[in-house]
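Field: COMPLEX_INPUT
Field: COMPONENT_COUNT = two
Field: RESIDUE_TOTAL = 567
Field: MODE = joint
Values follow.
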Amino acid sequence: MFVPFGKGILKGLRITLIHAFRRPITTQYPEEKLTTSKRIRGVKLVWDSQRCTGCATCAKSCLQGNIVIRTSRGDHNNYIVEEFTLDAGRCIFCGLCVESCPYDALFFGRVYETVEYDRQKLIYSIDDLTRDSDTAISAYYHPEFADALPEQTLLMDREHTGIHLTFSSPKDTSSSGETN
Amino acid sequence: MDAPVFDNWWGHFLLFAPICIFGALTFLLLFLWFDRRYWARYQIRVGPNRCGPWGLLQCLADGLKMALKEDIIPSKVDKFLHGLAPLLIMFPVLMVFAIIPFANARSGVVPDLNIGLIYLVGITSIVGIGLLTAGWASSNKWSLVGAMRSIATMVSYEFPVVLSLVGVGLMAGTLSMNGIVEAQERNGWFILLQPLGFLIFFVGMMAETGRSPFDFMECESELGCGVNTEYSGLRFGIFQMVEFMEGVLMSFIVATLFLGGYSFPGSQGIFPEGALGAVFGLIAVMIKMFIVYIFLGWIKCTMPGRLRIDQWMGFAWKALLPLSVLNLIIVAFEVVAFGGAPNFPAWVLFINLPACIILIMLWSRFWTTGGGRINVRAVRQGHTQGA
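Field: COMPLEX_OUTPUT
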């Protein structure tokens, strides 16, 4: 006999009240940073000077032609890489260079904060890309790095644990600020 | 009864009015911050927290931004009316703040207007004229449609609101806001004594001020913000501020008329007389206003969408208007039967609350709207004539 009156409204009020007492999932970005995925395709490539033979497979595979590699002849009938330049401003992060490297000498880095006022500053030279002992390397196409990397933080984890999150590797954040 | 400073009109005009206006505006800026932080919690956000401590200066920054933006006046608008409309909307809302009893009038700090309810109804109606002016002067279809919708709201929802206000006036035996609060101090809050009137007034005021389930006058998706379409800069800021102020004002009026205003039941002997009592009264009415506003925000976040236009008109004419007439009849009968205002018995609560529930349940049959509704069960069973 009675048409349901206001029942839906009361249900909705209950739902919104439950949501009102949830923990905000907002990440206060410059102060709090979420840990990125283990397989992030970062802006900077990481180039291993020991393993690279200068075969330039990466440069050939690049769809955009972003990678410039210039070599000279070494003493033992080998190539010496004199220039390895990446125009990260034109990179589409397809990952073909990393996947095509026959000697596992090219990786994705984990840096993602590389905003510049000048596009010229996004062209990285061989010194910017060379792998140090403590350069963070993404596990993209190289799952052997995955175990050492921290777990990705999800917003869901943040809500339930309430941990104050910071970016896991401070090395990356400090290097991202420099202008080179 | 001889009030110290404020017993003459010039004292009121020079001292109280500026304090009231600037105090109200400053308070509104701070309250807007609270409002945004509060709404953010419903969306699992944090809200503005960057400008100043805890983001307190965010609203000031937004106001400055509004003031510094270019004020674009389209070439085809009626320039005089286009400029006049924001003022026509803003000043009535500020004027209604004058009759809200923030404290007992016997303390001599706030005025007491003996026809407060009539003033309230009359002044708030000017807002509709301002909206129509804005919509007409903008020479924009969306603006005009939004303005006509707001006028339709005013016309439809004014009846239930005024009829429930008449119930309040009957029960209190006076039209003065201060007298109504004193009557509630004696007899109990009117939200308990006439719950049906409270519900009708609350919904009607929500519709008139354009709160969320009833924001037909500026539906962003359909009308491109209605009358706001051709406004920019400070004038748009005024529209936004007025919309927010109307919400605060509605909370104050509900707190005053139905929740006992500046008093608590039996607080006559506890609150001191004079200016100190006025401060206590201000705190009391602020707390009640906060509670009402929080409830308003809760409703807004629950129903961010809006009704269809026939549902919206049908709700006013088929549900609220008959119910408000019935409420008025019940209250009038009780006033005649149980004696006049000063000794109105509090136990009519036990008549009015069941009457409210039963009437709403009975009337819920008429809340359905014709035409758009399909009887799903009948269609499923093959009785297509039920469709």
